[in-house]
Write a structure and sequence with these properties.
The structure is a single chain. With 472 residues, this protein is an all-alpha fold. It has a single domain, classed as MFS general substrate transporter like domains (Growth Hormone, Chain: A, Up-down Bundle). It contains 17 helices and no strands. The two termini are 38 Å apart.
């Protein structure tokens, strides 16, 4: 059977698009729960100090990030009868679910044993998450080379991802509280984690089913390139480097807002349940806006869609800053505006990633699907981890004490972190994306030139000097 990535890619049916995209529903059950609630769970349910909780979160995410490029190289070399990426989904779905459930099993006490258990289970979960998520992300560069279909797939998977985010934001805290008892205050968290794990595992198995016939072996073995050539190829990939810089800035700065949101509503507004409602409103807004931005991508391009979305995102931050103390309605309106920016970010980021693979191959003759994805996700996760670690230290610095009234200085510190850092990061990331070089027309030209090279007699890959990587 010919390789799917050779020549014209087959059209993906709606059923296949949905079945492959539903993987993002499963992954976001894990990602959103950990991202929105785990730090809060550590501090306000387990009673861990904020700095300790932030360090655990940071260490686990950086470990996850460090694994990504290694796993990218491993996955690039995987060849089985089931495909290159499907085995990781088939065999990893159940262990990943169990690793997620283990996050919520540990003892509730600020003791060395409790800290060790939280750290070990978090690192285990992040390891399993990386093993399964990197092949899933890289799968999208293999199932089609058509930029329009990739834009469609980015929209489909982000719809599922945002629907998952809505469910997590709206249901997690209320269900965890309702299913817990005074004698077992964390039982609800465990039950919710178990339900999410089962659903997520079924979603990943659906992806493996839908990818049959698309995730196939290459007609010929992929040439092995010296490590130095691979590194120079990555450094020459200007498009990838710009996206990497933008996502690092966005992830770090956005953490200061998203992870502070529950603390803000619990201690500034005085009602933690409103924080869950705000998260749900934001996720619902993103779900509504994702299809709209998928259309904008088709009409205007990915770079333009990202920049268009940055306008309401930054406006929402400004509104949040000035709405403090003026009622919940304005705060929720600010969350809605920021969620519009988030919708453009997720659609464009995941739509840009496969295109940067072709950009690197076009520039250098070296194609590294999983390694590019691994490096970009490494940057995202490392930034999120550093953001969580910084937040834990910052909360301690401003005097945060869980489940107790906070001083005016502590509340002022939380508010400042939620505004200035996300504002600066959002402006800087938009500036980088304004320089992104790939348009729909240029991508089609790149793919055609790559196909023409493949049709010719084999030639040595383009050699790139380090000087060229700097000046290009």
């Amino acid at each position: 059977m010919p390789s799917v990535i050779q020549g014209d890619a087959p059209r993906l049916t709606a059923v296949r698009k949905a079945a492959i995209g539903v993987g993002d529903f499963g992954f976001n059950l894990y990602w959103q729960t950990a991202g929105l609630y785990l730090l809060f769970f550590y501090t306000d349910a387990l009673g861990l100090p904020a700095a300790t909780a932030g360090f655990i979160y940071m260490a686990a995410l950086i470990w996850d990030a460090a694994l990504d490029p290694i796993l990218g190289m491993v996955v690039d070399r995987t060849r089985t009868r089931m495909g290159r990426y499907r085995p990781y989904l088939l065999l990893g779905a159940a262990p990943l679910a169990l690793g997620f459930i283990a996050l919520f099993v540990g003892p509730a006490a600020p003791t060395a044993g409790a800290v060790a258990f939280a750290a070990i289970t978090h690192i285990l979960f992040r390891t399993l998450y990386a093993v399964v998520s990197i092949p899933y992300a890289a799968l999208f560069a293999r199932i089609t080379r058509d930029s329009t279909q990739r834009g469609d797939m980015a929209g489909v998977r982000m719809v599922f991802g945002t629907l998952s985010a809505i469910a997590v934001a709206a249901l997690t805290l209320p269900l965890a509280q309702a299913l817990s008892t005074p004698d077992a205050p964390r039982r609800g968290w465990l039950i919710v984690a178990a339900v999410y794990g089962v659903i997520a595992a079924l979603c990943l198995l659906a992806v493996a089913w839908a990818a049959r016939g698309l995730d196939v072996a290459d007609d010929e073995p992929v040439p092995r390139h010296p490590l130095g050539d691979v590194v120079r190829s990555l450094l020459a990939n200007r498009a990838m480097l710009l996206v990497l810089g933008a996502v690092v800035l966005s992830a770090f700065s956005g953490t200061m807002f998203s992870k502070n949101l529950l603390y803000y509503f619990k201690y500034v507004v005085g009602d933690a349940s409103l924080g869950s409602a705000a998260l749900a409103v934001g996720a619902l807004t993103a779900a509504i806006c994702v299809p709209a931005f998928a259309v904008i991508v088709r009409l205007a391009g990915k770079r333009e869609a990202w920049l268009i979305g940055a306008i309401p995102g930054l406006a929402g931050l400004v509104l949040w800053h000035f709405a403090d103390g003026h009622g919940v309605t304005l705060l929720l309106a600010a969350v809605v505006l920021q969620a519009m920016g988030l919708a453009s970010y997720v659609v464009c980021f995941w739509g840009m990633l496969p295109d940067t693979v072709e950009y690197g191959e076009w520039r250098t003759g070296i194609r590294t699907e999983s390694l590019v994805f691994g490096l970009l996700v490494l940057g995202q996760k490392a930034a999120l981890g550093l953001g969580a670690g910084f937040l834990g230290v910052a909360l301690t610095h401003v005097g945060y004490a869980p489940n107790a009234p906070q001083s005016p200085e502590t509340l002022a510190g939380i508010k400042a972190m939620m505004f200035w850092i996300p504002l600066i990061g959002g402006l800087a990331s938009a500036g980088l994306i304004a320089l992104y070089p790939i348009t729909r027309a240029s991508h089609e030209k790149m793919v055609a030139e790559i196909a023409a090279r493949s049709a010719d007699a084999p030639v040595a890959p383009t050699k790139i000097s380090l000087q060229e990587t700097v000046i290009q």
